Amino acid sequence: MEETTQQVEPKKGFTKKEKSWILYDVANSAYVMLATALLSLYFNFLSPSENLSSVWGLTNVIVTVIAVILCPILGTYADFSKKRGVFMTFALIGICSCAVLSLFSFVSKFTIAGILFLVVYIVTEVGFASANVFYDSMLNDVTTDENMHKVSANGYAWGYICSCIPFALCLVLYVLGTMVDGLGWFEGYAFSIGCLITAAWWLIFTLPLYKNYKQVHFMPKPEKPIRATFKRLGGLFKELAKNKKALVFLLAFFFYIDGVHTIIKMATALGTDLGFEQVQLVIMLFVTQFVAFPCAILFGKLASKIACEKLLLVAIIAYTAIGVFAVFLRQEWQCWILVVAVGMFQGGVQAMSRSYFTKLVPADKTGEYFGIYDIFGKSAAILGLGLISLLGIFFPLKEATWINISLIPLPILFGIGLLLFLVAMKKPMAKHEEGETTTQETQTTEE
Length: 447
Description:
mainly alpha
């Protein structure tokens, strides 16, 4: 049975809780921008490499493996009461590690600096991913069913546009250190200050959510929460096997989000290997963010009039076409087309996937289900990143032809995801997906 179109028009404004939730997307998106555009360059400054995309890609594979192990455990734990503090703990791990990255420009002369940088980067990414498990599961607590798609879309939208502010400051510093005569010595310090700016931004816009969030759907915290977490985790997989619509959707999500994450993670490194100037790459990234902002909001507005399933289907089809186009990428004008196309659908596919999945699972179990959701999302990235990185090791990716060949898996994965999503659309909704909550815990608000 296809998801029915929303009958109730979402309210126009946002509540304080909804705004606070949206602001965390603003907070962590600043780090996403930094990691996407500058951290690989920072690493190359500390430890110059002929195969930057390969080394950086394999590092992100390690990040993904760790996240895949942690996400289901954290997701199950997130359904217990008082998860706000645990969320903040992991957010602070990411924030503090991001700040620590600023120290490496002072030890750049040491051979081990590059290796240590990668270790701290991995810790930052793990903190970021772990906090997101709790953050995603909060969506059901901060808004209504009618407003869910709109709030999710606005989170991505405002994250895209507002993250440009700290990134612009970082970029100005980078330009001063690399392109102004006589200031070459400032390059490393520019990276350091950029990491500090990003960490401060991340912290400031995290605080409203920590202050205003109230957990509505939860289970009482047992005396031994760790043991209970692993016990419930086993039952979750059995329950998921019965929820055919959610299960097939997760399989589809695994494949199509792989391409999305691969494009995000490898954009700068691949662009560098293709021979594009850093200024060009950064401008393209800005254009992507500015295009993504109104398009993500548009997806949220359309979700009140058109079934979310249909909107998500359009976004997946578009990304499949983008993947095919990327295989033939050679000229600068082609890059600009790709940049605009990615911006148009990036926010839509991410926001609609998140809010759509929230509606497929029980309200009091969003944490553990989002732990699985993040497994499928994070582990999917292994495919694209791993294949591109391995091809870079065995073949000369400095040659454009081999870079095009390395991108062939992208349209294949998008295509598989598209076919599986079509199957998921035909599956009936499970009973609990229709809002049948009878547990006393789901009717209680955590103070």
